[in-house]
Amino acid sequence: QAKSGGKGRITVLDQQARAEARNKLRLVTELRDAIDSRDITLLYQPIFSTASRTPVAVEALARWDHPERGPISPAVFVPLAEESGLIGGLGLLVLDETCRQLAEWDRLTGVAAPPRANVNVSALQLDGNLPDQVAAALQRHQLHPSRISIEITESALMKDPASAQRVLQQLRDLGVELAIDDFGTGYSSLAYLRHLPVDCLKVDRSFVAELSAGHGEIASAVIALARSLNLCTVAEGVETAEQADELGRLGATYLQGFTLAEPMTGGHAAAWFAIHGETAQ
Ligand code: C2E
Ligand code: MG
Ligand code: MG
Ligand code: MG
Q: The complex's ipTM?
């Protein structure tokens, strides 16, 4: 196959590979500029109490609207930031901007500000500096630590469990809440879970989607496990009213998904919480 292509074919592939590398390099440069000029913005998706269906928190979700390429998903630019050494700066931006936004919502009168904001943290941010960075962001915007919840994916925790446990404990000592994101997809040992100082498990949306095909076994097991460990659960990716009802029956503490509310800008969220947030404390 390779031989029949001859030398010319290899050159074409070679050129393609080089063009891709150049492309990626340019994207990394542009991402660095976007982080430096705070062109990475955040959307906020409400999270609801299952029992009262009132919003109790928001999750901050990073967005990059590229001037030529249009919106680039965080599923693309977060890994790019991780491999190019930009994740530290991106993480600081997300922390600071979330705290700034919470403080701004607090200052607006007539708006019931979201009680809490969840911030996603990459595996590479999970080192001894993170607790200080979180403390500094809270301090800068004069927020109580209970206003922030840190979401860490299960797979990030499993990269270096001993070190992760130390960092989580320091975060916990600060007074921020901790949640394990995408739970059920990361092959963590269930015994190990008992030793992690976390508050909440986020049931991965793949298990929520399975509910609609009549397969609630995993969602049900994760929720039961969390309850027996005294952890709360957030079911993510709730797309239908039927899924929400079923998750209520299974005992999920909180619900998040497009059928309840989509991610929205900080400005829109202020207006949204003015309407929906009155009964949330
Ligand atoms: P995640 O933390 O699990 O966030 C939930 C994702 O599910 C978000 O995608 C959200 O928009 C999406 N989602 C919410 N409700 C529904 C629904 O009903 N159906 C479906 N199909 N999807 C729903 P998004 O914003 O594209 O983010 C993707 C992932 O990128 C996040 O997954 C998170 O792992 C990562 N990410 C986003 N922002 C940040 C950030 O600031 N820092 C880090 N380290 N990672 C981030
Ligand atoms: Mg998350
Ligand atoms: Mg998640
Ligand atoms: Mg997820």
A: 0.97
